[in-house]
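S.,

As promised, the zinc ion run. Input:
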Amino acid sequence: MPELPEVETTKRGIEPFLVGATIAGVVVRNKHLRWPAQVPQALAGQPITRVGRRAKYILITTPIGTLIVHLGMSGSLRLVDAQAPVKTHDHIDLQLSSGHCLRYNDPRRFGSFHFHTSDPAEHWLLTDLGPEPLSNNFSGEHLFQQSRRRRIAVKSHIMDSKIVVGVGNIYAAEALFSAGIRPTVQACRVTRVGYDRLASQISRILARAIQVGGTTLRDFVGSDGQPGYFRQSLNVYGRAGEPCRVCASLLKGMVLGQRSTVYCPKCQKTSGWR
Ligand SMILES: [Zn+2]
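Predicted complex:
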């Protein structure tokens, strides 16, 4: 599933080709995505003024409104030549005046296209979202304040998009390891110092993943290569039963909030203070 770094990589990859280009035509071959795709024909003739991202949504703005695109489980947006042959699962095209075409492919069709004519921040998909993890609005203080009455596991707390967006399962597990906090500790029991450390690890790990994703940009644009994860640098995710890279204890796997999680029983003992 594309996570925040892959979505940011996609956004950065397509942005230079889209901003300033005019949409020459719209082709919807299959609108049956998670919700019926909203890609109005009226977009033809409209210039693209901005490409943005909010959480895992890519925002493509024109003077008449904004397309709010989610890649779902298996979606991808690629820039192809307007003449490129259509493949299976190529559901939506935005043809550009430049001769390029922004093509949406999604085998499992859990992605979505919404069209919103006013400020996208007010769209129902986006109104309840917490701060961006790489913005100034995100901090240990924020995580701490939002956790005081929450008895859920700290891992579930940081994966809640109302608290902070874009912290997927991999990044939550890795940030908790780097912060030395056990994933199962109740959110309300993690200390302020613990949340400071956790917030800075979340930002660091996501920033690094975006950086690594960025190295695949050249493969990504104009081909069908998907942005890669940063698997080579994972400390705990997917490593249950293997030795901890810090203390050599065997990493423990478990299921928490219906998601698999892995932690080091020795390095992640505490609720924040060590
Ligand atoms: Zn360890």
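The chain has six helices and ten strands. Confidence is low (pLDDT under 50) at residues 215-229.

- D.
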